[in-house]
Design goal:
By secondary structure, this protein is of the alpha/beta class. It contains 14 helices and 17 strands. Bound molecules: pyridoxal-5'-phosphate. Keywords: Pyridoxal phosphate, Transferase.
Amino acid sequence: MSHQRVEPLDVEAIRAEYPILDQSVDGTPLVYLDSAATAQTPDPVVDAMSDYYRETNANVHRGIHHLSQQASAAYEEAHDRVAEFVGASGGRKELVFTKNTTESENLIAHAWGLRELGPGDEVVLTQMEHHASLVTWQQVAMRTGADVKYIEVTEDGRLDMDHARECITDDTAMLSAVHVSNTLGTVNPVNELVDLAHEHDALTFIDGAQAVPTRPVDVEAIDADFYAFSGHKMAGPTGIGCLYGKEALLAELDPYLYGGGMIRKVTYDDSTWGEVPWKFEPGTPPIAEAVGLHAAVDYLEEIGMERVQAHEEHLAEAAYDALSDIDGLTIYGPEPGPDRAGLVSFTLENVHAHDLASICNDHAVAIRAGDHCTQPLHDTLGVAATARASFYVYNTVDEIEPLVEAIEDAQSLFA
Ligand SMILES: Cc1ncc(COP(=O)(O)O)c(C=O)c1O
């Protein structure tokens, strides 16, 4: 594995900050293996948000009173802190708060895509895009007359880079690719993809919803033009997501949503916009959530993202090995290694993924079943649904055993 030399996590100490994990379902200790959907939130993040509500709560950018000034400062600083966490040196000028990754995708697809795309332009996606990217670009392409192309996935769950080189041409206006696949666990070669797109003067959007929570990410090293992620998958709260964009690109884009808080001057006839990021954040923003996300970033940085990654890779490998021993079980995505993240999707012969998840629930094991918002990818894999176990900093290798027992139980029930 790639990061074996970092100091292992003290999972027991980590779990002490997640009281939600210390519960039983019908008398059996809960095993939470659904962090790729939403990760749990540690006490320091919950405390930061409850302190905010107890001590600082007010609307931002509007008041000159003490609380409003404090809330505004906390909200603004959160942008800088999160920007720093992902290596964006422009701070708040490059980091917009949205509702989630999905809204970040929509922001660029609408603000940039509706203006720039037209017949003859191509948007290149991968076959493993989440619907957040796939549906959004598909619909904006339909409205503008642009075409959408998909880079194919190989048998072993990686991107076919030969096909990527065929797909990305001088007609490519935008390459939008997922950094880490939420279904296959594949870590895509985003630097190479971005370089390829830039060689053809295309812009790039990277969906980092599963990457930022689980590994060190440096948006400038990737050279992505836009990069998106969600608070709730990285030990932060729901209701807040992020859009990184290169300063010059964000500065020249028009807003996507309109209203108060984002304007410079309004008359009955016309309006002008404030600075980035405020021009993309109309209305009352997620203030407490920004405070929580700031705390989540502090929390993750204190653990160390390299250790988070190593822990995830270790768990994924252990799960991969344990599940591989089960007859009739198929695992999707690459074998464990540096291009495989900490989640494992699988199917079990004769057992529908939903039945499997339901029997896992009987064993107090929380996994996800369905298409994981990647329906076309599931069509390509030839399955309607998969079951997915995903891990985070608080999971232990011992928690894989109850998963295996639940799967074996399902197997005997449906034999
Ligand atoms: C790869 C990927 N992209 C986008 C999303 C959408 O994230 P959100 O629901 O927070 O907008 C997810 C969520 O599962 C994801 O895994």
